[in-house]
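Problem 12. The chain below contains 157 residues. Write out its predicted structure in token notation.
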Amino acid sequence: MKKPISDSTFFDKKVFPTLLFSFLTFIVVAVQLASEENGPSTVGLITTVCAFAMAFFGYVVMQELYVELIDEVYDEGDSLLFKNSGKEVRVCLRDIHSISSETTSTSTRRKVTLLLSQQTDLGSKLTFYVRDNLLPSGQKVVVDIDELHNRIEQARE
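Solution.
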């Protein structure tokens, strides 16, 4: 039976960037339309430059935080199933070289990184978030990182 380990990153990777860049585009267009009626203005120029700076900064931050994240992760007992951008990769626990986790700034989720002993279609370093509460589907996250680490050690023996 598949047990979800990681909730979907759909909001983080798709919805939030779309909303952010749409909002910034709206601001730029609105300022430019208002400027056309009254002629070029310093405020319009400053607002446009700030919007582009925010878009650039947002893009850089999102690349750092979300691009490497796996969309979904499921625990299948002796293996983990990773789903990302339409690709599925099943990794046996014995093929995981190391596991590390760190708490994020929101403290409701942890960033987990697995280093694999061999290359997969998704790479040899797989990173995902684990929430410390309920998934959006209402299912409880049932994985404990220490318990997963122990299972990996047992599988390698």
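Discussion. Strands lie at 3-6, 72-75, 79-84, 87-92, 96-103, 109-116, 125-131. Students who got a different answer should revisit the alignment rule from Section 12.3.
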